Structure formats: C-alpha cells, structure tokens
Amino acid sequence: MYRRAVRGGLDFYETNTQVKRAVVRGQLVRLNGNANYTVANVRTPYVRPETRSFVIQLAADYKRACREPMVVTSATRPMSRKLVNSSSLTVHPAGIAIDLRKPSGRCLTWLRRTLLTAENRGLIEATEERRPPHFHIAVLPSRYKNAAMPRQSASASRRGSVGR
Hints:
Muramoyl-pentapeptide Carboxypeptidase, domain 2, two-stranded antiparallel ribbon, 7 strands
C-alpha cells in the first residue's frame, strides 16, 4: 500500500500544520461521525474524500448488520506523531487509512467478510491487528472513486453472508 501511495503521488503529511493546510485546500475532509459511526479519541479526524466516502458507506452497512455504530479509532496521523508500534511504511500520514475498533461476535464475522470482499475487489487493503486489537484499513483512492462497496441485503446481513 505504501508503494502504491508513493507511486500515486499522494502527499504524506509531516506535521499537524501540514494536515491543517491540506484541510483548507480540500485535500483532506473531516470525519464527523453520524448515527452509523463514531470517532473515538482521534486527534486529527481528517481523511481523503474517498476514504470518508468509504467510511460513511461501510458504517451504514455495519449499523444495519450490527444494530450499533461502528467506531473509528484513528485517521490521518502526521509522520511527526508516528506510534511506537506502527510501521515505518504506514499510510496514515497520506490520509487514506483508518483504524476501526474490533467488534465481537456476529459483528466481527460480518466485518471480516465485508472487508475481505472489498479487498478482493481491489478497493481497500485491510489488516486485522492484534496489539492493540483493531482493523487497519487503507482505501485505494483511484479505485474507490469508480466503484461502490459491495452491498448486502438485510437478510444476507443477518445470515452473516456477503452479497456481491
């Protein structure tokens, strides 16, 4: 994902000031949260527009399937705020990555299947992390612009299967 972001000419923001400038220029947009998702303790809740579109659509599907809001725990993180346990090749500074709180039970099964389907379609790259437990998701901006997330019917969501 890092190589794709670099080859795609994405900016990697070094500081909070650079993130703020990108917001003013419209390169990054705010994750506000809504009835379908919350943003929990995220210092810089900004992402690329395609990433926000992905979050909004995934969260609506998640809420229908799980009957609770999805929780975003990380978004753009400038390189100056790199976490101790993060990779040196992280794409969080480019605004294309988010982290989600790891749910349990049927919601965990639903999220794994849905992310795998989106990954198989070439829309995202998703990793289930263990420490701390969360999902790291990078949205491929050029691919996501032209494709929608796989939709699930309400009955398919309840069965835990993924519609195509």
